[in-house]
Amino acid sequence: MKDLLRIMIFLSIVLIGLFYLDPTISENDVLEAPRTVDPLPSEEITDDSLDIDRPATGISTYIGKSSEEWIGAYGEPIRIEPSAFGYDWWIYNASYAHFMMTGVKDGKVVQVYTAGVAADAAPYKIGQNLDDLYRFTILENEVTVKYGETIYTFNVTAEDMDKRILVKFDGVYAQLYIDSLDRALEAVRFMDAETLVRHQPYDMMFSGELMPIEMPSSKMQQSIDDANAKQIVDLVNVYRLHHQTKPLNLNPPTSAVAAANSEDMAKQNFSSEELEFKDLHARLEEGNIAFEQAAVNTAARYFDAAETVHGWINSDVHRKTLLSDQYNQTGVGVFGKYYTQIFLEKEPVIASPQ
């Protein structure tokens, strides 16, 4: 009798465990962006970092040129979307091998980002080995930028050297996004001085008058959130193709669930009250989302979609989910600097014969 009672208790514990630890659901912890300190004033900054001749060919040569010149070379974009930094993103995603996002402000190209393996990112090449890149790239722990009468110095840490290298050319700056596991170049962002200072991707000191922060209206922020969500879908698919994994299909109802999750993340962070936070299973069930397997990646405080996806690819658990071939659909939702991507395995719908 006692043995039977022990068996029943054991089975009850197992069933409760299976209920709460659903093996079909995977929820990764929120990935937070590296923290930067507030800009520090300093009167001892001098503009003495090295100036390297800017590339003579490739997409970086269009920084500072008119948008008409860019269109003459690359055509009209597939989408035009706002950013939080005063420029519009022109999205080129007709071919993921040539994937690019171009920042345009006041009719001029201020930034070009690419993760496309066929894009001309001279002097770099997407997929390039990190050791090879080190051989011909001058690396500096401090990079000085002059914009107007103000001088800024960015501190590039040892960790950044393995994941986000900053290189100064003559009038152009390049961020090199590294896959630290494969030790390969995943993406490149070329930009002008103003764009780099507005992004503030590293700890920064300044001498002079600090550039004021531009805050978008609430209506504009909603459009920016929608843009970041679309860009995450594109970028995750580009990264999956880099790693020989099929791209994901967008599932709009799941994006609505993801957006609600991101909004709740923001509320939970800023509210002094303890708020109830639903798990992924409850959210999908509430949204009537059917699935075989599901997972979620979340992130906070990254300044845009490209930085967010790069953070995920360099985090072991988030990377495993992002590159998993067991998922075939996705939904993405963004609320300010809070990001949610849901991954689903769903059986394909087979049309019935007529």
Description:
With 354 residues, this protein is an alpha+beta fold. 32% of the residues lie in helices and 26% in strands. The chain has ten helices and 17 strands. It has helices spanning 2-20, 67-74, 130-136, 158-163, 193-199, 218-242, 252-270, 280-286, 305-313, 316-322, and strands at 25-27, 31-32, 40-41, 79-82, 88-92, 100-105, 108-114, 142-147, 150-155, 164-168, 173-179, 184-191, 203-207, 249-250, 293-300, 329-335, 338-345. A seven-stranded antiparallel sheet has the order 4-5-6-7-12-11-10, sandwiched between helices. Strand 11 and strand 12 form a beta hairpin. Helix 6 (218-242) runs parallel beside helix 9 (305-313). The longest helix has 25 residues, at 218-242. 37% of the residues are buried. The model is unreliable at 9-21 and 349-354 (pLDDT under 50).
The number of helical runs is: 10
Report the C-alpha radius of gyration, rounded: 23 Å
Order of helices and strands: HEEEHEEEEHEEHEEEHEHEHHEHHEE
- Assembly category: single chain
Number of strands: 17
Helix and strand content put the structural class at: alpha+beta
Concise structural overview:
This protein has 354 residues and is α+β, with helices and mostly antiparallel strands. Helices cover 32% and strands 26% of the residues.
